[in-house]
Amino acid sequence: MYKTLTTQAIIKLGFSHEDIRFARSCCLRRLSRGVYSVRYVCTLEKHRRLWASIEEGTHSEFKQYGDIRDEIVELDAAVMARCEVRFEKARIQKKATSDADADPNEQAQSPTNQPTAEVFSHISAALIHGLPVAYPVTHQVEVVRPRINRRFKSIHVRGATIPKHHRQRVLGTEVTTLERTLIDVARAYNPDIAVSMLDSALRRGLTTREKILTTLSQCLEVRNTKKVHLALDLADARRESPAESIAAVRFFQHGIDGFIPQVEFEAASLRSRIRVDFFHKAARLVVEIDGIGKLYLGSGVPRDELERERRREQWLRDRNWRVIRISWKELFKASKFDEIRRVVMSTR
After folding, report:
1. Do 60 and 80 form a contact (C-beta atoms < 8 A)?
2. Most buried of 102, 117, 138, 156 (most Cβ within 10 A)?
3. CB burial class (10 A; 0-12, 13-18, 19+) of residue 221?
4. What residues form the membrane-spanning segments (predicted)?
């Protein structure tokens, strides 16, 4: 988690407004009005109070990749910033109520003790739950509020009422439950976004299909319910990355079936086991997916890693397995999947 601080919190650490302005040119990043994130551990000792928790391993540096993943990082930071603001407001309200020595009966009815009207939802809730966002689909923080449906520059407010059993408190604020989040994302976004989240949640044992279906049956909303069932049908806990999940969705969209994910071969001559992303026995075809990270590694890929890749592919080809690699960019083009479909269809 990133180190997020409000202006008030930074001032309490002994920084002036001028110090904050200077720190913004160094290790401090402005997320929104009055909210900042610590980018990294700098060399200035006077900034230690800002980044000490990063150095100690409690928080993480503000990671930047130099590619489209930065859009997701930016959104994640914006969500965390809004959480921080909400948490700080609740803390101040609670302190004010305590200082006033309010009557216990009145205190029980106070806003700080009631569920908040605003609930983080959809992609924002997914980020809070630690689910992967395969690629950028929105730059807006998404929340649900009763009877309000508006889009602002940085926030998308969806008009709905989330029942109490479909929300929980995370990071001091209200968020749709994991199961409700997965359902909402499946309703609102493309299947590859939803399936990559479902694959991750199922693989990590965070939920089950049964729990998701139970939550779905409790939803008043019926719009796009078929999309939710489709995403669940396509989900598979064996897949290990969003790129593999996207590929699986593309197989379905192009009418390609018969692929099994994460199959292992015993390669005695290599003194190791070879695990492939997708395996099609009838077509004697192996499909390997290069995630977004490999797209930007370039010459930075270690030579021994490239050599291992070359040897394992040659081992497969020597045994009459055809190997097709799909790059990140090719996941969003039809040509590679048309080629795979031709190979699979030729064996029927």
Report:
1. no
2. 156
3. exposed
4. none
More confident residue, 126 or 266: 126
Question: Is the CB of residue 143 less than 8 Å from the CB of residue 120?
Answer: yes
Gap between the Cα atoms of 117 and 103, Å rounded: 24
Mean of the pLDDT values across residues 73-78? 88
Q: How far, CA to CA in Å, does 69 sit from each of 132, 182, 241, 293, 296?
A: 11, 21, 14, 9, 11
Sheet holding 173-176, edge to edge: 150-151, 155-159, 141-145, 119-120, 173-176, 167-170
Query: In whole angstroms, how large is the CA radius of gyration of the chain?
Result: 24
- Candidates 69, 37, 188; CA nearest to 121 is 188
What is the reported pLDDT for 168? Answer: 95
Sequence letter at residue 219: C
Higher per-residue confidence, 90 vs 228: 228
Encoding tokens for residue 55? 């150095």
Distances (CA, A) of 128 to 78, 191, 227, 302: 11, 20, 23, 33
Please report the domains of the chain, with CATH numbers, ordered by start residue: 63-234 (no CATH), 242-345 (3.40.960.10)
As a whole number of angstroms, the distance between CA 321 and CA 170 comes to: 48
Instruction: Report the alpha-carbon distance of residue 277 to residue 301 in Å, rounded.
Output: 19
Residue pair 290/274 in contact by the 8 Å Cβ criterion? no
Tokens of 70: 């930065």
Contact residues for 123 (Cβ-Cβ < 8 A; gap 6+)? 75, 133, 137, 138, 142, 185, 189
Q: Give the angle 28-13-39 at the CA atoms, nearest 5°.
A: 15
End-to-end CA gap in the chain: 50
Cβ(199)–Cβ(236) below 8 Å: yes
HSE on the CB side for 41, CA within 13 Å? 9
pLDDT of residue 105: 54
Strands (E), 164-283: 167-170, 173-176, 260-267, 272-280
Contact 326/335 with Cβ under 8 angstroms?
A: no
